[in-house]
Structure formats: structure tokens, C-alpha cells
Amino acid sequence: MIPTIKDVARKANVSTATVSRILNELPGYSEKTKEKVLKAIEELGYQPNAIARGLVSKRTKTLGVLFPNVSSIFASEILNGIEDTAHEQDHSVIVCNTDSNGVRTMKYLQVLNEKRVDGIIFTSEVLKKEYYDALVEMNIPIVLVSTASYRYPLPFVKVDDKHAAYSATEYLIKNGHKKIAMISGTKDDSIAGTPRVEGYIQALKDNNLSYENRRIVYGIDFGYKTGVMCMEELLKKAPDFTAVFAASDEIAIGALSVAYKEGIKVPDDLSIIGYDNLKVAEMSIPPLTTVAQPLYEMGKIATNMLFSMIKNGNTAESRIIQHRIVERQSVKNIQ
Amino acid sequence: MIPTIKDVARKANVSTATVSRILNELPGYSEKTKEKVLKAIEELGYQPNAIARGLVSKRTKTLGVLFPNVSSIFASEILNGIEDTAHEQDHSVIVCNTDSNGVRTMKYLQVLNEKRVDGIIFTSEVLKKEYYDALVEMNIPIVLVSTASYRYPLPFVKVDDKHAAYSATEYLIKNGHKKIAMISGTKDDSIAGTPRVEGYIQALKDNNLSYENRRIVYGIDFGYKTGVMCMEELLKKAPDFTAVFAASDEIAIGALSVAYKEGIKVPDDLSIIGYDNLKVAEMSIPPLTTVAQPLYEMGKIATNMLFSMIKNGNTAESRIIQHRIVERQSVKNIQ
DNA sequence: ATGAAAGCGCTAACAG
DNA sequence: CTGTTAGCGCTTTCAT
Fold first, then answer.
1. Distance of CA A170 to the CA centre of its chain
2. Minimal Cα–Cα distance from B54 to chain A, Å?
3. Could you tell me which CATH number the domain at B161-293 has?
4. CB within 7 A of strand D (chain A, 7-26)
């Protein structure tokens, strides 16, 4: 059988309390007994039962993380940052793949509550009222990543999407482009959808370029296929553009493929700028110029915020993370 | 405060035992009391404490999964399959990012043991003796994914790497290629390294093509940069090949980039076949022909195996998963 | 059909 | 410095 603290105590001729003290580095024992106990632990191959510990201490040293899609490159970079930071602090992370499904999300929230995780990181999705209510009910720290809520007071970690889109568009303008199209992702996404479109329009206006409705096209998500379809649509609808701002790298790469197939040379005939700076951005042909969100970093920051909330019981300040343009080879200066 | 089973019992005027029975759908209560109890649960917003449950039942309904690198596209597709299946069966998954680091891996194994997970999935890495020993010590079901061990009797789920490499090479040969180079990943990897090289060599031999040492080059991993470096090396060392078999899609894409930069047209001047069939394979320019490993599927299969082991207490049969060639546009028939 | 009570393995007063 | 003991929230005999 698996040895318990009792077995250790018996073997070392001390009480379980003493073993517990030694295990938790609490004061109250001599070097001598410590050695005795450590020896017993060693010999028995004893490992404390974290479940029992969790029951009494009410701290499970585990975090819950929700993603709409764990297998997206986007999510996995954030996860990497979260996991690394959690591990540094001796915590585990339970991943939840919500599939952007309300029922499934609620189910996960319930499970995380039942498993008494110490904190939750909610990523990349609009926070619905029912999620918020469930979250509040749980009464544990929450941090939002790559999403935010202006209705509910939860701390978030994200870039300023409008600003980042503005920067991307402006970058194109500075490179001499005047006819700039945009491929947006989901149309009514209040986090990654509308703000980026607004940033794009704002940049055009501020530079006295006319904004034309036909130059912007919407997809159903932020994936590669959306990029392909939207690019085709754009080419059909309004082919007179010299640059396109894609709302994600995957969209940009989809657009790139279409351009390639149509014999349009990037960046000679057409410039493309992406959004995210995923690892694939540097792997594309040509390497993609894009506005970078430091995803790994964002995961780290959010997790550290969560830990500070867990420790101090306070709430953390939201963090707007700086984006930056990563210049590669998909944009040409045409002036 | 968070309501406990006691609160429910009190409110419903029954014992905690009865509440427990109802919660667990065990026999022994009338419809009437069931309703009373359900009502109390509802009103209190009671959610059972999985930690307390785990302590007595010795089942935590959580699985541990170890990856050398969670943020790789490769890993995240497997994770997706695992998570989906676990969720179907009402289990959670704790992800561990070992970084291919022995110390870190051992640490995770310890944590998973302390947290009393019900089973473990170990992926993509050679199983060292110390891991195996720790695993055995834990006395819980284990399944290996995308790796295997011939020294230790653990069930695995993987494709036949040698066979898959053979198929890829043969595909090139059938398309008229005679001078075929190979970019391998890690040299001494007994799982994803050597077997693929062997498959490549075997295919050449079986087709009476000479195997030339200079046509095979090794990297330090299976990543994009390795692809870039190895392709450059290959071009320098032995430029007289018409096709290359890359040991991973990322390597293939790295090779593709170099070809592009050097003005070598794929597939007109050079054919490239990859390995894995990651999502990026269809996003590349041109879309990459590759040998597919059904990663999501493998994650699912492994998880189901794990569940069957957990339930029946037996061990499962290892599964060799069929690979297949996915024809896209990076290979040209030149005969 | 239902309840009382004994733990699961651990921590945390409290006493000494 | 060390031990005793009362839980943490639940499941599970064993009675009734």
C-alpha cells in the first residue's frame, strides 16, 4: 500500500504532527527528529497526498485555464506561458477546451469549482453573463487573457486591439499604400472583431484616406480558411488595392496562398500585414510582417497576476500589453 | 460560506448519507426524499467538493499528460484529442511541459503522484529508466503516445515510423525521383530519429537506388530552424538531388523557405515531402505533401485506452496507427 | 428507505 | 520541542 503520514510517524517514532511540521517547514522540531523523519520518508518512499492536503488547507495548488480551442497555435503559446509560470510556483494547470460552446464552458466552470482550483484564467472569448455569474459564485481569483470585459470588473491582460490595428494600418500607409483592404475575423466579436476594424478605419481617416466599405470583408473566425475565402471575395469585389491588413496571421497566410495561386506576387504586387506574430508568421513565404502580441509573455503575466491575487486576496490591475510591428518581408514600400 | 453536504442534509431533513446516495445515484431512497434533497441542493447552490470525494474514493477524475513542448503544433493536436476524450468521460487533464528536461519530468511525475491522478499519458519522448521506475511506483495506468518503449512493458499508440518513412520515400521514388535527400531530426532519437532514417534507406535499397551518406543530414530537433539549416547544408554539400524527405513538416517548411530564397522552385525544380500532416502543412506555399499521423485521433485512442485500463484494471494492447500519404502540391512526378 | 458513525490522509490548534 | 485531537467534506458499512 501507499504509505501515509501515519506510517512515517510510526516508523520514525514521532507523531504525525511532527512529520507534518517537517514536511511543511514549520517551526517546532529538532535537527535530530528531522533526520529521523526524513530517513523514514526516504525508506518508505513516502509522498504526501495532495488531495488530503487540499481538503484541509483549502488550497489545491492547481489552476484552471479555459481556451476556445487548445489546439490553435495562438492558444498553445499562451498556455505555454501559463504553464511555465504555474510550474515555477509549484502549481498545476488543468486545461479546458470550451470549443466556444456555452454549455461546455459552464460545465467546465462547474468542474473547476468542484475541484476547488485556486484560480482561473479565461482566454480569448467574450465573457457572457452566465460565465461571470458562475465565476463570481466560485469566489476565487480570475484573470482574463486576450479578452476583456467592460461590464464586469475582472482584471485582464491584453493588447489594445484598436491601437494595434491602427498601428498595422498606419505602417502600411507609411509604406506608401493608399488603397488598403482589410480582412476581419468574426464580425460581431467585440474583442477581436470590431476594435480592429475601428483601428483600421481610424488610421485611414487620420491620414486622409477614404474608407471604402467594399474594401473590408468579414469571415467566420480567424483561421486560415477564412483568410482564403475572404481574400477570394476581396479579389472579386474590389481588386484595386495594394495592401491588405489581415486580422490574424492565419488569415494573412490564407490570403498569401490565394495571392500565390492567382499569380499575385507578395510583396511586389501586393503587401500583406498580419496580426499576432505566431510562430507560423516567420515560416511563411515570404515571411510575414505582422503586429506582434507577446502571447507567451501574456500568459506569464496573467499567471503572475493570478498568484498575486491568490496570495494577497486583493484584485490586480488590468494590463494593456504593448504590441509591436515585426517587419519581415510581406510588405513593400511603394512610394 | 460554501455549502457542504451537511448543509444540504440539514436543509432537507435527511442524513448526509442519503444526500450522498442521491448524488451518486446509488439505490436507497424514495422519490419524495430525492425531490426534497434536490430542492435543497438547488436552493443552496450546492456543488460537491471533488477534493473530499477524491480523498475517500481514491479516484480524482483527473489525468496527467506530459509533453516535451506544449506549444508545439504537434503537441497541441494530441492534447486536443486527449482533452476531448477526457471531457466526454468527465475527467480533467493536467498538462505538464517537460521541456525535454529530466529533472523537470521527474518533478512532474512526483506532482502527478501527489495529486493522485487516475492515469498518465506520456508523449513524444524516449522513456528513461528513472521515469519508468517512478511511473511503476505510482501504480496507475500509463499510456505512451507517439513514443514507445521496447524495454518496458507500457502500452503505446504510435505510427510505425520506419514504415511511414519508407512510404514517404517510396512515394518519391514512384514519382520518378532517384536522387533523394533526407533531412532527419535529432540524430540519436530512437523513436523519431533512427527509424525514419532506416525507413528511408530501406526504401532506397528495395528500389535499387544507391544510398549515399552525403545526402542525409541531421538536425538538433524537428523544428523549422533545423529545416532551414539542414537544407542550406544539404545544398552546399550535395546539391544534386531532385527530392527531399523531411522528417517533420516543420523541417519541410524550413526547407521550403530556403528553396524559395535560393530561387529553387518547388515542386518544379525540387520536390519535398514532409511528415506529420500538421495544420501548417496545408497552409504552406505550395501546400505540402506529407505523410500523415492522425494526431488528434491518436490522442483520443490513447485516452480511451487509459480509461479502459482504469476501469478494468487490466493493461491495454499497444496500437500501431496507420499513416497515410496526403498528396498536395510539393511533389512533382518527373518521369 | 434511512441514519449513525467510522474513516480517507492531512493540518492546526491546544496542551504539555 | 512534541503529542493529542478535532476536524476538512465526503463515502460507506452497519444498523434499524
1. 25
2. 7
3. 3.40.50.2300
4. 13-18, 21
